[in-house]
Amino acid sequence: MRPENFIFLRSLMRQHAGVLLEEGKEYLVLARLGPLARRESWGSVDELISHLRSRPNGELRRQVAEAMVTTETSFFRDVHPFQTLKDVIFPDLIERRAGSRTLRIWSAACAAGQEAYSVAMLLKEHFGDLPGWHVRIVASDVSSAMIERAKLGSYSQLEINRGVPSHLLTRHFERDGLQWRVNEDIRQMVDFRQINLATPFPPLPEMDIIFARNVLIYFDENTRREVLRRLAGNLRKDGYLFVGGAETMIAYSDLFYRLQIDRTSCYRPRR
Ligand SMILES: C[S@@+](CC[C@H](N)C(=O)[O-])C[C@H]1O[C@@H](n2cnc3c(N)ncnc32)[C@H](O)[C@@H]1O
Description:
Strand order of the largest sheet: 6-2-1-7-8
Distance between the termini: 47 Å
Bound molecules: S-adenosylmethionine
Strand content: 15-25%
């Protein structure tokens, strides 16, 4: 692809979502933007980017930025964090929040919503309705297209097969044509919002649990530190932060300390 188009895209990604597009990743651009270029009837990815450079267009810019980022996710992704939530973290928080009877959970890069709905199903299954409690799950993503999908809560058989056990499928989903839709009581536990982690957050209550899994990898070093600093400020001092299994937090030990619970690592803010 033309070098000036690659440079333009690098700066677009940085501005849009603080996302770092490394030198030499032209192949990634072609793979990610090829389907969008074809769908929008451009002759090539270069043509699409050249057009965007000469005629700034907010909607096309958003589509390009969103197509560049992977939204790969699944229900109960990585299994162990959810096991630890069930066995240790929720029992602990339910005991410690018995006074306020409030629990706040944030799925901070929720993609199509599977993470947030997994937490909602887990709570419902193992802790019932927690009568008298105020339990809210906020789920956000930079991509407004993802947020619309997540709100709908409708998933293909393939997406269901990736992580939903059959007893949960029976209890918490209903058939919707070829799709499966999350039942309304579970959907209502989640508030979906568009939030870009790379820019200052809108006002949010302090959270008991934050999931920022498999998103920090996209940010350059400065942005990642800034995001983690803001997340630390939005997490209660006895709360829990989850990052992706492959994401290391060693460089941020001034912001968070690690808790090893069973087979799960999570983090608490240093205050
Ligand atoms: C690989 S998915 C991870 C989804 C889920 N957290 C998980 O671990 O399965 C990455 C998500 O991060 C979102 N994302 C990328 N940059 C972001 C930003 N600056 N702010 C918020 N979300 C962002 C993408 O839109 C995508 O949905």
